[in-house]
Amino acid sequence: MSGDPIITVDPSQPVPPYVQIRDQIADLVSTGGLAAGTRLPTVRQLAADLGLANGTVARAYQELEAAGQLETRRGGGTRVAPQAGGRRAAVVREHAHEFATTMRRLGVTAAEALAAVDQAFELGDSDRKDLTVISVQSE
Amino acid sequence: MSGDPIITVDPSQPVPPYVQIRDQIADLVSTGGLAAGTRLPTVRQLAADLGLANGTVARAYQELEAAGQLETRRGGGTRVAPQAGGRRAAVVREHAHEFATTMRRLGVTAAEALAAVDQAFELGDSDRKDLTVISVQSE
DNA sequence: TCCTTTGTATCAAGGACTTGATGCAAAGGT
DNA sequence: ACCTTTGCATCAAGTCCTTGATACAAAGGA
Question: Is A77 helix (H, G, I), strand (E, B) or coil?
């Protein structure tokens, strides 16, 4: 039982640690890798594991709570928000909206944009970001 | 001729001036608002118009050249790259690819994603959240 | 209620990024 | 060839962001 590591942070990357933490958790929550109600490591725990300050982890949790993905209670820890799973649809809509907006600004028609997305799906992915290394601690 | 207001910069915005300039030009080039071969204002000219330092405008031009959108020659000015117009397709593909990758990571099927994009187009522009940041540049 | 757990607020230090100014180098025009 | 035009390189200063440490507040358990 290795009290597995929770999230990985690469300090050499230009994107700041608190963003790395935030995005990794956001991905997991959105994809269902972390079910609603699942308890996350405490701020101190995760900070210690990653060798960071409490405030750094706290900031990540905070922004995720503001985004509705997490729920925190002092003394009670931090958990994945109840409807967080249901947020997937919202996340999809949001991305689609942004994509559509960009396409419109480029003067691209809906048909053209749809064709491009369709093709992108068929091509499969070339640049694969390293996915998260989270292990859920259940209790 | 042409005292055309090509570019505007709003210092109050959080995004730095050189990025504002870069993105505006990138948009114009992508959409064909600036045809291939079109000569842009000189670094000094644009800097003076905007009340900025030469280096600020130069940086924007530089990054655009690195991205293949512009071509510069010392003493010869800066022009829209010959195949820049043809880049629109590349830009579209790039965005579509990024969108598709995100969708896949969310476990969204192609059909579902296409439906979302289609709907986003029908809805038109409403409010713009800034949760996700999609940047245009490659490389 | 008391004590522990856990998230929050604050603030100073450090670093990264952006800007501005100036001099240099290369291309163009005559 | 000469001189002008125009982009590039460099470097210091200012600003903004991020981090780390510490003290505080709220919730939970016995």
Answer: strand
